[in-house]
Design a protein that fits this description.
Order of helices and strands: HHHHHHHHHHHHHHHHH
Shape: globular
Distance between the termini: 29 Å
Structural class: mainly alpha
CATH architecture: Up-down Bundle
Number of helices: 17
CATH topology: Growth Hormone, Chain: A
Number of domains: 1
Length: 416
């Protein structure tokens, strides 16, 4: 195994984690709910529905992009393009003032950035077998997830110490206009752009020679053939269906965790960031430890154990009566975020046919997004109807339980 490409590939997780941690989950999501929207409950509902819209868009376009990438044999140009979209849309969040009139602009930017981020993941994940030998897929995938949590942790610390809670505020930023919070969007955009660069210089890939038009038409034909002959890939498709369900629960927690803490427990932004820092520490440790577990006991068992732990911890979070008990349950829950996601990526790499890897990871991205709009949307709709955000988040364990049940018929290896 060549260490350079592995490190460069893992650094992309380090780079993009700042977006999910600061923008989607903890800082900007809480700022939107508490400082931009008309009121916190309305803000939580609007944010949830925006995440749902982004998920629906991703569900439609991910398999197509994956199939197109298979035709060209190259994924880095596509990864670069959608990453630039994410970086630009994130940077534009700087212009979101603490004014309800700016809410629509904020939500549009977040939807565009989220689509760019998630589509990029399908190209990134499909590169895993190119940088790791088969016997080390689980470890490399887990190391990258742990690297991602480290990136989220460090970026959160920087955001907290040098921007959100800095006194005096640096660079002449105006606290009354929340510029010290809005500046975290610039931090994320720069962080993503800088730390993503090593992948594009150090990870090699073959391919090329196929025009964009040929790639699009060939990719669409390939995708149609895959759906037409679905039974030939029965095991992979069974896994994709299971992943579709349980990933919705995991992604809903990621997308709305910071909003939940702010709305239900009234946590101030600084406290939400501290929670995010603690969660990233435990999540990173979980991903690092289970990286070896994945290769030793298999991806399916790793996913199953992680899902069972997540179900128990999520229920505890929902019934937590005080912020202290919420913190404890959330820390236990976060320990298993990384393992379930890293092992899912490894499982897909192991069972996907080599010549259909991009398409299968496109479908893998689809599996995580085809109902991903349903989780946040259901949370938003239930919260709006009942004026109870805790009740809205009760849909999460339902997705986790159903996904675990569907996983039982999936075989560990092979595409049949």
């Amino acid at each position: 195994m060549r260490k350079g490409p592995v490190i460069a590939w893992s650094l992309f997780d380090f780079a993009n984690s700042a977006f999910t941690t600061i923008i989607v989950t903890f800082v900007f999501a809480a700022y939107f709910a508490q400082g931009v929207a008309a009121d916190p409950t309305t803000g939580g509902s609007q944010w949830s529905l925006a995440m749902g819209i982004a998920g629906l868009i991703i569900a439609v376009i991910s398999p197509v992009f994956g199939a197109i990438a298979d035709q060209t044999g190259r994924r880095k140009p596509w990864l670069a393009g959608v990453s630039v979209v994410c970086v630009i849309a994130t940077a534009l969040l700087w212009y979101v003032r603490p004014d309800a009139a700016d809410a629509p602009f904020a939500l549009i930017c977040v939807v565009v950035a989220t689509v760019g981020f998630e589509v990029g993941l399908l190209f990134y994940n499909a590169m895993l077998p190119d940088v790791a030998p088969p016997a080390m897929l689980g470890r490399v995938s887990g190391w990258a997830w742990a690297c991602g949590y480290a990136g989220g942790l460090i970026s959160l610390l920087i955001a907290l110490v040098f921007l959100v809670q800095a006194d005096p505020v640096p660079f002449g930023l105006n606290k009354d206009q929340a510029e010290h919070v809005r500046a975290t969007a610039i931090l994320v955009a720069g962080w993503f752009a800088i730390f993503a660069l090593p992948l594009f210089f150090m990870v090699k890939e073959d391919g090329g020679g196929v025009s964009i038009g040929q790639a699009v038409s060939g990719g669409l034909r390939q995708l149609a053939e895959t759906f037409r002959h679905a039974r030939a890939h029965g095991n992979a498709l069974r896994f994709l269906i299971a992943a579709m369900i349980y990933s919705d629960g995991v992604h809903t927690v990621f997308a709305l965790g910071g909003v939940y803490a702010a709305v239900v427990f009234g946590m101030e932004l600084g406290d939400v960031i501290l929670l995010g820092i603690a969660l990233n520490v435990t999540a990173g440790l979980g991903a690092l430890i289970f990286a070896w577990v994945d290769d030793r006991i298999g991806s399916k068992r790793t996913i199953s154990i992680s899902l069972m732990a997540l179900i128990v911890a999520t229920i505890a979070v929902l019934f937590a009566p005080t912020p202290i008990t919420f913190w404890g349950a959330a820390l236990i829950m976060s320990t298993f975020f990384g393992p379930v996601q890293a092992a899912s990526r490894t499982m897909m790499a192991r069972i996907a046919p080599p010549d259909m890897r991009g398409e299968m990871f496109g479908l893998f991205s689809l599996s995580g997004k085809v109902t991903a709009f349903a989780g946040p949307a259901l949370v938003g709709l239930i919260a709006a109807a009942t004026n109870n955000y805790r009740l809205g988040m009760a849909v999460v364990p339902v997705f986790l339980i159903l996904g675990l049940w569907l996983l039982k018929d999936v075989k560990e290896t092979g595409s049949e």
